[in-house]
Structure formats: C-alpha cells, structure tokens
Design brief:
With 472 residues, this protein is of the alpha/beta class. It has helices spanning 3-14, 17-23, 51-60, 64-68, 106-112, 120-134, 138-146, 163-171, 177-180, 185-192, 254-260, 277-285, 298-311, 314-320, 331-334, 351-355, 360-369, 373-387, 407-420, 431-436, and strands at 94-95, 101-102, 152-155, 175-176, 222-224, 246-249, 267-270, 290-294, 321-324, 339-345, 388-398, 425-428, 451-453, 464-471. The termini are far apart.
C-alpha cells in the first residue's frame, strides 16, 4: 500500500473533521504546513511505517500530563466576581419542525441535542480555565454551552424566496435582526465608519430580494426569534443549477462581517474561509470588488466551494470570487499591501464543538494543540497586517472564550508589530457597533482589545470574539 494511502486511512480512522482543521495548519511544535495535501504533522518525523505503528506514533505525542494540569491564565490569578447585566427575553428555548414547543430546564434542552452528552474531560478542563477567567459568571455560561445553541437564518439575496420560506418566517414569528435592534442603514453605517457619509438600507423586507443581479446592492437579511428562542429550520439539500434560499448559522457570526465594514470596490480577503458562512455573508452585504476566499485544508476547501456554489450565481463566482488554498501565514510574502479588508476567522479551540467531541484520541490531541494555537493565531494575524494596504483594516475573530486565544493574541501581535513594522497599527473601538446589538447579544465588559459575545441561556449566541485593527 502506498504511503499516501496509509496516511489517508489514518486520517479517516483517527481524526474528526475538527481535528483535521487544527492538524492541517499546526503540529506538536506549532510548525505550519504549506502543503494542503493530507499529511500528518508530527514534528520532523516522516511517516513511512504501517498503519498500526503510525497510530502508536501519534498516541505517543499525546501529553498525559497536560490533561491533568490546569492552564494558568496570565494576568490576575484570583477569581473575579464580575458585574452582571440585566437579562433579555425568556429563559426558555423553543424547538420544532412545524410547531414551536417550549422546553423546560437544562436537562430537557440537552435531550434536544439528540442524546449528545458533553465530555467530562473537556468540562473539567473548562472549569479550571474558565472558572478562573469568568469567576461567578462561569456557572451561567457553562449551562448555556451545554444547552442547544441558537441558529438564525440568512436569506440569500441571489435567490428567489419561495412562498414556503416566507410562510415559515411568518408562522415562527421570526424577525430581521436589524429590525429587532432598531438599526437602520443610515445609523449602522454611521456607527461603523463615522467619517463616511454613505448610506445603506439594511432593513429591506424579504420579499424584495435581488434576483441574481450583480448590479443590485445586496443587503444582509438575517432572521431570528425576537425572544432568542430556539427554532429548528429544515436543512436545504444542494440541487445542481438551483440556488439555496437561506443559510443557517449563529447570529454572532454576523458581527465580524459587520465590523469589517466592506465598502464598494474593496478588495477583501477571507483568510480562513471554510465552511463559507462569513464569505457568504460578505457577498450579501455590499457590491465590492473582489473576494478572495482562502482555505488551505483540502477537505474544508471542498466544503467552502460547495457552499459558494450552492448560494452564489456562477457569473458572480467567475468575476468577483477567487477561491485559494494558500497557508494563511504566506499572504504576507505573496500579497503584501494588496487588500483593503482582511478577515481572519482564525482556527481556534471552538468550545462548543470540542465540548461534544466523541473522538477520544482527537479530543486529547486538541487538549495538547490548544497550548500552541495562540502561536498559530498570532502568525495569521501578523500575516494579515502585512497583506492589508495602508488605510485598510483587519478583523480578527474566534469562536472561543479563551483569553489566551483572544485578547492575549492581540496584545502579543501589537507588541511585535510596534517593534518591527514601519506601519502604524491602531485598535478600532467597536463599542458603537455592540451597542446596536445589546437587545440580542450579551457582551463581556472586561475585554481589552475586542468584543466577546458570551452565551447565556436567555441569549445563547456565541462564543464569538472579534477585534479590529487599522493600518496606517
């Protein structure tokens, strides 16, 4: 059996999709791979042995000491009792395919997850790390992570909205998130970029979708339950030659896209684009110049392409979208000072996904890899700052609560750039943006450089961290 077949079998046997995401870009020593082919990353060791011995090699890399030792946070070591804001909406969530039924306590919500049980190993790890980070708030955040996450519905501006979809929105009492927050196009644009007087209308009704026209300004239309209740939406199957009418994702995923504040004729890079939700949202927001959707991992790149082809007309994919598979750290060398806006939705711990991991080996490997993620994330952010033009902006985002992967990555990059880069980098204040969405999201008040959406049972969105840097 050829060596590539052995590697393929080992990937299929050991790694889940989320494990591949990390291992495709980093390894035990935080070394980045530049090849998108399915390779195992095990330091400097080459793999030429049979499958059985290869599995032993990988298992030897697991650090059993790291599973027992708590991660020491930087900064204050004491538990912080933090100020709690008032709760919005109801503490009950709803679910249903046709009818919307109210669920009771957390135990009943966990049954909604099709019998999925959170990993005790991961929970213990979270309790050690996040218990110190969030203090008395952690118990509420923990309960939300164990409950079903909320999903919203992003309408596709390039497809016709059927009467069935329109009826579903009305029957389930879904509203556009911009209407819920009383955000008009004018004041949204003002808050994102006070120096620009251009106006955009974000609250078009869903009946007025543009129909496969690249000459029509597209606008985000994202629907959720106004009381942050859980509503189940039917998943749409891909039909060749037919565009899907909506995409399901968490509402917090919109915030990094809005923070990027894409303008007409901007050249935009989505550095870590798979599975494609943020690239799709970017294409809905504005008539910009060119979107480069990049994903170095082979499997995830296929998923990205499938998403784009399912929602975006081919004529737009041919003229305004470029799908690449370059390792994110190399954009600083290949495309320096090229892009107007760069989104770094960085590989991260992904707390919700990790909590319900069923793959024991992959779960333990992620426990070890988590220590090296900040190094990878900082490398990607530095690369983005080199790739963006002077006057352009970079938004850094993760879906983890970890301050080591959020504020501390920002802090380390800012220190390094100030010493080595001739350009001046400044943090953009996003308080005005978050004020617009306080009716829907709960934000951490103690972040230093960015904004963090905290999940609570009455607003179970996130976690989602995002921060914005401008290059001068």
């Amino acid at each position: 059996m050829g060596s590539w077949k052995i590697q393929r079998k080992l990937h299929e046997y050991i790694y889940s999709a989320t494990s591949r995401r990390l291992l495709s870009t980093t390894c035990k020593y935080g070394v980045l791979t530049t090849d998108s082919s399915p390779k195992l990353c095990t330091g400097n060791t080459r793999i030429n042995s049979p499958v059985k011995s290869l599995k032993k090699t990988v298992v030897k890399l697991l650090s059993t000491e790291s599973l027992a030792a708590p991660i020491q946070p930087s900064g204050q070591q004491n538990v912080r009792d933090r100020f709690k804001t008032g709760q919005n909406g109801s503490n009950t969530e709803t679910v249903g395919s046709e009818d919307v039924n109210t669920l009771g306590p957390v135990e009943e919500r966990r049954e909604f997850k099709h019998g999925r049980v959170p990993s005790q190993l991961v929970l213990d790890h979270f309790d050690r790390q996040y218990g110190r980070q969030f203090g008395s708030e952690w118990s509420d955040i923990r309960a939300a992570l164990m409950a079903p996450k909320l999903n919203g519905l992003l309408l596709n501006n390039f497809a016709n909205v059927s009467s069935k979809v329109a009826t579903m929105l009305k029957e389930r009492r879904l509203q556009n998130i911009f209407d819920i927050c009383n955000i008009s196009g004018k004041n949204m644009q003002f808050h994102l970029n006070e120096a620009d007087g251009a106006e955009k209308d974000f609250d078009l009704p869903f009946e007025r979708n543009c129909k496969n026209s690249k000459d029509t300004d597209a606008n985000l239309q994202f629907y959720i339950h106004p009381e942050n209740r859980h509503v189940r939406f039917p998943k749409l199957k891909h039909v060749p030659g037919q565009l899907k009418s909506y995409f399901l994702q968490g509402a917090a995923s919109l915030l990094p896209v809005l923070a990027l504040d894409v303008q007409q004729d901007d050249s935009v890079l989505d550095m870590c684009a798979a599975p494609g939700g943020k690239s799709l949202a970017l294409l809905q927001t504005a008539k910009f110049g060119l979107l480069t959707s990049n994903e170095p991992d082979l499997w995830r790149k296929r998923r990205l392409v499938d998403t784009l082809q399912s929602f975006i007309p081919q004529e737009i994919l041919d003229t305004r979208v470029d799908v690449t598979k370059l390792s994110g750290v190399h954009f600083q060398d290949v495309t320096p000072n090229i892009f107007d806006k760069v989104l770094v939705d960085a590989p991260c711990s992904n707390d919700r996904s990790w909590l319900y991991s069923k793959n024991i080996i992959g779960m333990q490997m992620r426990m070890e890899d988590r220590r090296h993620l900040p190094e990878l994330q900082a490398s990607l952010l530095r690369s983005a700052l080199h790739a963006v033009k002077p006057g352009g902006s970079v938004v850094y985002a993760t879906c983890t609560l970890s301050q080591q992967e959020n504020d501390e990555v920002m802090e380390s990059v800012l220190k390094q750039v100030s010493k080595t880069n001739k350009s001046r980098i400044e943090v953009t204040n996003l308080n005005n943006l978050t004020k617009n969405f306080q009716k829907v999201f709960r934000f951490d008040s103690l972040t230093r450089y960015g904004q963090l959406v905290l999940p609570y049972l009455d607003a179970n969105w996130g976690p989602m961290y995002f921060a914005k840097l401008k290059k001068y």
